[in-house]
Design a protein that fits this description.
By secondary structure, the chain is mostly beta strands. The protein has helices at 67-70, 204-216; strands at 40-47, 54-61, 76-85, 89-90, 112-125, 131-138, 140-142, 145-149, 160-169, 175-188, 193-195, 201-203.
């Protein structure tokens, strides 16, 4: 069985551009794909004394994360609290660091993800129900490899967010709806106001109405 896998991250992306310095076995490539569309991706690796250890700094150039831009790539929208964040894991079949670095071929694109345990309080879109939900966030630390994704959501234990999720892809590009990937996560304050990425602050009710409107008109 494969370990927590799968990834893909959002939006109306543009052409793929990858810059990844060779560090392990001369590998070059990227580890992040928001969606099979296309994305402008840049990544740089920082070597460590141990050849199996390195750091990856990565960013993805996507369209502005408005609600309208996020929804076409979203299969689940929930309001949930972050219960815990775990150590990062590789999205490979066995969950282990690949021998040849972060890029091994056109389809095989290993990456690190951080498993996060949520407590869902409300579900707006998709088949998630109130209760426990396990998701993954792009990037993290697995062993002595650090993978930092600049524009991945910054999630904190004990905080409430509105999560936009989609099936995560594994290193071979297979999608896994049982382990959703976080596309966007917007914080909710104690008064029920959501700080969206582009549209500013709005109430949970306003955002839910907008989400349902956009889904109904897709």
């Amino acid at each position: 069985m494969r370990h927590l896998q799968d990834r893909s991250r959002l939006l109306i992306l543009t052409a793929v551009t990858v810059m990844l310095g060779a560090c392990v076995s001369g590998s070059a490539g990227t580890t992040l794909v928001r969606d099979p569309s296309s994305a402008a991706v840049s990544a740089a690796r920082t070597p460590r004394p141990n050849p199996d250890c390195y750091g990856i700094d990565e960013s993805v150039d996507t369209a502005p994360p408005t609600v309208a831009n996020v929804m076409p790539f979203t299969t689940i929208v929930v309001v949930a609290d972050v219960r815990s964040l775990e150590a990062g894991i590789w999205n490979t079949m066995d969950g282990k660091q690949p021998d040849n670095g972060v890029k091994n071929g056109p389809k095989f694109a290993p990456a690190i993800e951080t498993p996060i345990n949520l407590q869902v309080s409300d579900s707006w879109v998709g088949d998630a129900r109130p209760g426990a939900l396990r998701v993954v966030n792009p990037g993290g630390t697995a062993g002595c490899v650090d993978h930092h994704v600049t524009n991945a959501p910054d999630l904190q234990k004990g905080k409430k967010y509105v999560f936009f999720l989609q099936p995560s892809p594994d290193a071979d590009g297979q999608r896994h709806p049982e382990l959703p990937l976080v596309l966007e996560a917007w914080p909710v304050d104690g008064t029920g106001q959501v700080e969206t990425a582009e549209e500013g602050s709005m109430s949970l009710a306003q955002l839910e109405d907008l989400v349902h409107h956009l889904r109904a008109n897709e």
